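Sequence in, structure out. First:
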Amino acid sequence: MIIKYFSWIREHVGKSEENFDLPSNVTTINELIEHLNGLNNQYKHAFAKRDLIKIAVNKKYSPFETKINNNDEVAFFPPVTGG
């Protein structure tokens, strides 16, 4: 799986992208975030404002309950504003 981080999420995590092998018990975005939070405080800070985070799975906006697998690309980013 490829995980991409944008804006302040990238700043907290300390990288813009990573290759990640999903543990067998992680099947949704929510479970992925919980797993990442357990890895270190950088992820905890990045996902502390979960209600502000938007997600795309394979370049399509997706809810936190979306099922995922190792072939997916998941992107985390803050709301996008225009002007």
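Second:
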Amino acid sequence: MDEEAYYGVHTVRALRNFPSTGERFDQAFLWAYFMVKKTAAILNLELGFLEERIGEAIIRACDEWKTLSKYIVVDPLSGGAGTSVNMNVNEVIANRATELIGGRKGEYLVHPLDHVNLHQSTNDTFPTAGKMAVIVRLRELVEAVIALQEAVQVKEKEFYNIRKPGRTQLMDGPPIMLGQEFGAFADALARDRWRLNKVEERIRSVNLGGTAIGTGVGAPKEYILRAVEKLREVSGVKVAKAENLIDATQNLDTFAEVHGLLKSLAVNLYKISNDIRILSSGPNTAIGELIPPRVQAGSSIMPGKINPVVPEYVMQLCHVVFGHETIISHACALGNLELNQFVPLVVHFTLKSITHLTSACKALRDYVLGIEANPERCREHLTNSISNLTPLIKRFGYEKVALAIKAANWDVERAFKILAEETGVELEKLKRDLDLDRMTGLGYTV
């Protein structure tokens, strides 16, 4: 055992039993766990269950969480439903509190279980801290989504009058404005913003005071009734006492719900990033309708090459979130009877997904603001798109237009000439009637 460490024997045993995976707890989770312990100490002090010097020492130790958090060393993927993590936190707080009242680490003048863990269980403290941390990180993610949405809307306005061909299944489609494409991106992000704002209500319900299985065994009734109210006061996080503490102890479906919405955001970020990547492709031998920001050299051997590295970064993070979705869905379903033994895994990977998506939104926002359009390329592609003839099916019928296109070997100008010859309509009039600049309006016909 490290002589400088504040943890004790229970933590050392856990380190032996659970080799490190390299994972580390989110700082928001560690802060939340210390706040849960601080709340318990304040309440137990008020109710007369702790001596004043012991209670005050625990409170002071909890306030040093930033310094002490480096000693929370049990792996997030340890077994035991988080018991070893709770013991790690208890030991660190107890040893520091012992120092604060004049003792030495390991002397336990403040005991990790009898004092720091008084009227608590891993089974109510761990998920409560997890939900608090998710709320904190969700708010940060929502702000990042808002900033990204606003950046996309800037480009929606900037590109609104640039017409180009739409594409379906990567093949030519009818005209669309580049700004309309970005407007669709913005609306997708707006839905994510709304969903993530609303889901916070679902994760606020916590089971603190329920102790082992939600019945509150081992804790006095007054403590149980006041625990969540006190936690809200101490932490500033708007948690609420679960209506059914047993349900809130054994079921983690709210985490599955939250992560499902994180997955939805990842789906949209992936789609937007890949679309930007496709529209930027080339620039001379592919689509090239967008000019990507020159954020870094794209190749160590091809001079001047610029790659869509930020969209690819975002897409990689989204892949990780997709993987987390599978893990969390299975873990939430695999709880047994009165407890879900995988709560540490669920909390940890939910927080990792939120962090990844926040990073993705921030990176993509800056990248989007640096995107430029290539109007000349857009117009060139627009005039050469065979799907521009789509509105003519109302005048000549689908088969006639399709046969003209086939006969022209998918050349737009030749298709116009063939249709003019076959229908007796003057070529220039046919072109005037087919107004590309009006075709992006709702309900355009000829």
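Remark: The longest strand covers residues 171-177.
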